[in-house]
Design brief:
about 325 residues, mainly alpha, MetI-like fold
C-alpha cells in the first residue's frame, strides 16, 4: 500500500507541475495587454510602461512563471491587477459560494441516483427499467445550462418560487442562502445523477451475476434480500469512484451555471477576470481548481485501493 501511495503521490506532483506550465503558458498568450485594458486606448506610453513595471509584466515569461509558482507554494496568490486586492482573499470569498454549491449538487446527485439506479436494477427488463434508462439518457444529453435557463423560466419567472439569480449571502440565514443555490444545484445535479444512476444499475447487475450471489439465492434468499444484503455493498466500489470524480467536476465545472444565475462564485470570478485580462486571478483560480480535481482523484484512488487490494499491484 505504501508503494502504491508513493507512486500515486509522485504522479500527482508531476501532474500539478505540468498543469501549472500549461495553464501559465495558455493564459499568457491570450491577446490583449492587461495594462492597456486598465488604462484605456489613450494612455501615454510612459504611464503604460510604469504600470507594466508595477504589475511585473515587463519581466521575461520564465521569471514571471517562477515568481507565480513560488508564490503559490508559499500560499501567496498575488495581487489582482484590476481590484488591487490579494487574490487569496477574492478566492476565499468566492469559494464560500462555489464549495457549498458543489456539495449541495453532489448531495442531490446521490439522493436522486441511488434510488433510481437500485430500482432499475431490481426490475431489469421491465417497463420501469426501460423508462428510467431512457430518462437518464435524456438527462445526460441535455446541456445543464439549457436546463438551467428552462428552470429560471418556469420556477423563477412563471411560478416565482425562486429568484432568477443572485446569492442572498450566508449572513441572511441558512434557508435564504440555500434557496438561492437550489436551482443552480439542481441544474448541475441532474446530468450527474443520470450518469451515476446508470453506473449504479450496471454495477448492481454485474454483481448480481456473481457466483456468491447465486450461492446466496441457493441458500434461500430472495432476489430482493440478496440485492440489499450482498450486492449493494459490493456494487458501491465503482459508484464511489464516480462520486469522487463528480465532485471534482461540480467544483470546477460550474462556470457556466454560475454565470447563468449570476452567482458570485469561482466560475463568475474567472469569467470577469478573463474579460478584464486580470491574468494573475485567472491563473491562480484555474490552478486551484486543477489542484482540487487532481487531489480528489488521488484520494479516490487511495480509497479504492484500500477497499480492493488487487489495485495495489498495478
Amino acid at each position: 500500500m505504501l508503494r502504491f501511495t508513493l507512486t500515486r503521490l509522485l504522479s500527482l506532483c508531476l501532474s500539478l507541475a505540468v498543469a501549472s506550465v500549461v495553464i501559465f503558458a495558455a493564459i499568457e498568450v491570450l491577446p490583449g495587454d492587461p495594462a492597456s485594458i486598465m488604462l484605456g486606448v489613450n494612455a501615454q506610453p510612459d504611464t503604460l510602461a510604469a504600470l507594466r513595471a508595477e504589475l511585473g509584466l515587463d519581466q521575461p515569461m520564465a521569471a514571471r512563471y517562477l515568481d507565480w509558482i513560488g508564490g503559490l507554494l508559499r500560499g501567496d496568490f498575488g495581487i489582482s491587477y484590476t481590484y488591487r486586492t490579494p487574490v487569496v482573499e477574492m478566492i476565499g470569498d468566492r469559494l464560500a459560494v462555489s464549495l457549498p454549491l458543489a456539495l449541495f449538487s453532489l448531495a442531490l446527485t446521490i439522493v436522486i441516483a441511488f434510488p433510481v439506479g437500485i430500482w432499475a436494477a431490481a426490475r431489469r427488463g421491465s417497463v420501469a427499467d426501460v423508462a428510467i434508462m431512457g430518462l437518464t439518457q435524456l438527462g445526460v444529453a441535455i446541456p445543464n445550462f439549457w436546463f438551467a435557463m428552462l428552470m429560471v423560466l418556469v420556477f423563477a419567472i412563471n411560478l416565482q418560487w425562486f429568484s432568477a439569480g443572485g446569492f442572498a449571502g450566508w449572513d441572511a440565514g441558512l434557508f435564504p442562502a440555500l434557496k438561492s443555490l437550489t436551482l443552480p444545484a439542481i441544474a448541475l445535479a441532474l446530468p450527474q445523477a443520470s450518469i451515476l444512476a446508470r453506473v449504479m444499475r450496471s454495477a448492481l447487475l454485474d454483481t448480481l451475476s456473481e457466483d456468491f450471489i447465486r450461492t446466496a439465492r441457493a441458500k434461500g434468499l430472495s432476489r430482493r434480500e440478496a440485492l440489499w444484503r450482498h450486492a449493494l455493498r459490493n456494487a458501491l466500489i465503482p459508484v464511489l469512484t464516480i462520486i469522487g470524480m463528480q465532485f471534482s467536476f461540480l467544483l470546477a465545472g460550474g462556470i457556466i451555471i454560475e454565470n447563468v444565475f449570476y452567482l458570485p462564485g469561482l466560475g463568475r470570478l474567472i469569467f470577469q477576470a478573463i474579460s478584464a485580462r486580470d491574468l494573475i486571478v485567472v491563473e491562480s483560480v484555474v490552478m486551484l481548481l486543477v489542484f482540487a480535481v487532481i487531489v480528489v482523484n488521488f484520494l479516490v484512488e487511495l480509497a479504492y485501493a484500500a477497499v480492493d487490494p488487487r489495485l495495489r499491484a498495478r
